[in-house]
Amino acid sequence: MQLDLLERLQQWHNPVLDRLFLWITNIGGEDFYLLLGPLIFWCVGINLGVRLLVMLLGSFYTNAWLKDWFDTVRPAAAHPERFVLSEGAKATALEEDGSWSPSFPSGHAQHTLVFWAFVGLWLRQRWAWAIAGIMIFLVSFSRLYLGVHWPIDLLGGWFFGSLIVVASIYRTPIISNLPSKQQERLALAVAALSLIGLFVDPGADRVKMLGFLAGSLGTLGLQQRYAQFQVQTVWWRQLIKIVLGISIVFVLRALLKSVLPATLIADGLRYLIIGVWTTFGAPLLFRFTIAKPAAN
Questions:
Q1: 20-66 pLDDT, tens digit each
Q2: What are phi and psi of 281, to 5 degrees?
Q3: Which phi and psi (to 5°) does residue 94 adopt?
Q4: CA pair distance 156, 158, nearest whole angstrom
Q5: Measured over all CA atoms, what is the biggest interatomic distance in the chain, rounded to whole angstroms?
Q6: For the chain, first and last CA: distance in Å?
Q7: Cβ(150)–Cβ(2) below 8 Å
Q8: Residue closest to 227 by CA, chosen among 187, 281, 185
Q9: Which intervals hold domain Phosphatidic acid phosphatase type 2/haloperoxidase (predicted)?
């Protein structure tokens, strides 16, 4: 039944839809969402940004672990004679070494549900939930259209993404009500566990997420003490923050990849440094340049 559905979708293929659904699938990938967390942190609200980063990093980590545990084959890998994938579509389903990544559950479906549920819960408006539903459907459907996921993969992604959202709904108020010192200790404890995970977890994607989590949560206390900045300010200052902050993220990714050895630990260290930049380095720069805190 699943194969029949995917084969029917293959009959819809044309250059316009191919480009459209490839674009839609790319805005549902990890790299896209990993940039949105820092933007919320820098320009909307620090606590809100931390919540989103933790939810997304938790989603990335659990999805990578679940993929390795279930280790199911993608449609295009199981039936290469029935699916002719473009290079762009194929690239969204490959490991860094060029091999097919496992299929279940769909990371795009899971991360998209987590992010857009976060948006809906944050804005609490009908139009926000309508946009969330449309985006979750479009990104998930794009994975079927491109031939890189089975329908059950989407259901799995939605299920595990929903568990993360529900956990966030119940845990966030508890953490928010803790004294600031306890919140800081909790962040340091999670950062320490993530740092230990860099040396014991063999998963390439998981190591990156552990590194980012260790770097970002481990420096939150420093940010509160030494890098207070204006989160919400005039639009042109916000634009400078976004361009400057994201540009340095890309520079760090490229530069560190070129100078560090090609090992799992080095990958984790690379993302740890990016995490430090996100929650401490960028705010420190903003504090002394374009987003100085308002005088009391």
A1: 999 999 988 877 887 888 999 999 999 999 999 999 999 999 999 99
A2: -60, -50
A3: -110, 150
A4: 5
A5: 68
A6: 65
A7: yes
A8: 281
A9: 47-169
